[in-house]
Amino acid sequence: MNEIHSNMDKDRIRSTYNKAVLLPERTIMMQEWADYVDDLKK
Question: Which of 4, 14, 16, 27 is 20 to 30 A distant from 42 in Cα terms?
């Protein structure tokens, strides 16, 4: 049982780290998508 909880903690830490590392790229991607959608309205 402790091994399961240990793995869950590592996965949460890894997930949080990956979100932080990828945030700049995700921000750029989402801005490009928003610009694209705005252009469709014109």
Answer: 27
